């Protein structure tokens, strides 16, 4: 049994404008010691899904199942969730400055985290452990900086403090929500190294929420690609990068800058994500998809096996046969190119 098993998770919020369907039928497993990356554009449901699993989406309409080491988290009591959050599931939030209390030293906050879950630990022992953790995540002079306040640290250092706090009780699962956002490339690499080293040391499983595919390539074992609250594709990291099936995944990868091709234009995905209050009929990605055909606009494709790989799932009506899908893509590209030429000629005329 996997450490975390999520099945058909659905999360909706009532708003004055209507019901926001933030997460629609999300399912995935996280094995012990592995890293699962959840990727997608902003608003695709990445953060909401993990916040729901840990009981942080109050007021939401929730259904489905999330079983953590045999414990059902959806619908669990506040007491059960408090016993799991922090101690067995650590969290690194997107903005460390707003996640750390500005009125208390960082060391005090780590000590409180430790003692809240283990009342037998003395303050002195907890403080020593906190200093050790800060040193472990690469903060210099940890013994003295333990008494500094969050505003006295740089963005990268604050993120390291959050990692130290999240790992203070050696959790079984670490949820990292955009852990490298707004950090420069050098600091990003350092933060990822810290997470990787801690994972190796403690055997912690990681859910990595990001839109940075470079981070995904470096850190993940498996990848879930989300769009408009639903899973578009799910597969091993290498499969997602080199043998993907869904046009949305293809579009995300095509939008990356070409390595070594300085000055080359990026290839964006046309259009914008749909409203989660009024989703389009059929495939949610159809209005932006270069390969969409009639069925895409009428029926929502199920998440199904493709390329004869039971671990590779895609929610797309394109053929699940690799060769046929390649031919369909070529034909669609030729048709789009012809249409573009015709439109150009009409404008010229």
What can be said about this structure in brief?
The chain is α/β, with parallel strands linked by helices and about 350 residues long. Helix content is about 40%, strand content about 20%. Strand 1 (about 5-15) and strand 2 (about 20-30) form a beta hairpin.
Radius of gyration: 22 Å
Shape: globular
Amino- and carboxy-terminal Cα gap: 65 Å
Summing up helix and strand content along with how strands pair, one would put the structural category as alpha/beta
Q: Give a count of the beta strands, DSSP E runs of length 2 or more.
A: 12
Binned strand content: 15-25%
3D structure, described in words:
This protein is α/β, with parallel strands linked by helices. Helix content is 38%, strand content 22%. The strands form 2 sheets. Strands 6-7-8-3-9-10-12-11 form an 8-stranded mixed sheet, sandwiched between helices. Strands 2-1-4-5 form a 4-stranded antiparallel sheet, covered by helices on one side. Helix 5 crosses helix 7 (155-166) and helix 7 runs parallel beside helix 8 (185-202). 38% of the residues are buried.
């Amino acid at each position: 049994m996997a450490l975390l098993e999520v099945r058909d998770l659905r999360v909706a919020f009532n708003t004055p404008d209507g019901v926001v369907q933030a997460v629609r039928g999300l399912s995935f497993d996280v094995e012990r010691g592995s890293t699962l990356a959840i990727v997608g554009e902003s608003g695709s449901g990445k953060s909401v899904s993990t916040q729901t699993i840990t009981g942080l989406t109050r007021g939401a309409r929730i259904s489905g199942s999330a079983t953590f080491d045999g414990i059902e988290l959806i619908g669990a009591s506040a007491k059960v969730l408090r016993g799991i959050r922090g101690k067995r599931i650590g969290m690194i939030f997107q903005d460390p400055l707003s996640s750390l209390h500005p009125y208390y030293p960082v060391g005090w906050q780590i000590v409180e985290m430790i003692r809240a879950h283990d009342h037998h630990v003395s303050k002195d022992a907890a403080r020593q452990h906190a200093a050790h953790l800060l040193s472990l995540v690469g903060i210099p002079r940890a013994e003295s900086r333990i008494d500094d306040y969050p505003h006295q640290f740089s963005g990268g250092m604050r993120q390291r403090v959050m990692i130290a706090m999240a790992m203070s009780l050696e959790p079984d699962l670490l949820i990292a929500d955009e852990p490298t956002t707004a950090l420069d490339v050098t600091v990003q690499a350092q933060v990822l190294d810290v997470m990787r080293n801690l994972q190796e040391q403690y055997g912690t499983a990681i859910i990595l929420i990001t839109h940075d595919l470079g981070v995904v390539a470096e850190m993940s074992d498996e990848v879930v690609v989300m769009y408009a609250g639903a899973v578009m594709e799910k597969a091993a990291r290498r499969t997602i990068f080199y043998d993907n099936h869904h046009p949305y995944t293809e579009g995300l990868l095509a939008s990356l800058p070409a390595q070594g091709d300085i000055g080359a234009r990026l290839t964006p995905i046309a259009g914008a994500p749909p409203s989660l209050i009024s989703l389009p009929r059929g495939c949610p990605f159809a209005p932006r998809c270069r390969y969409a055909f009639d069925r895409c606009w009428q029926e929502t494709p199920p998440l199904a096996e493709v390329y004869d790989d039971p671990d590779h799932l895609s929610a797309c009506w394109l053929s699940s046969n690799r060769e046929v899908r390649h031919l369909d893509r070529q034909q669609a590209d030729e048709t789009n190119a012809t249409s573009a030429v015709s439109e150009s000629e009409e404008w010229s005329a």
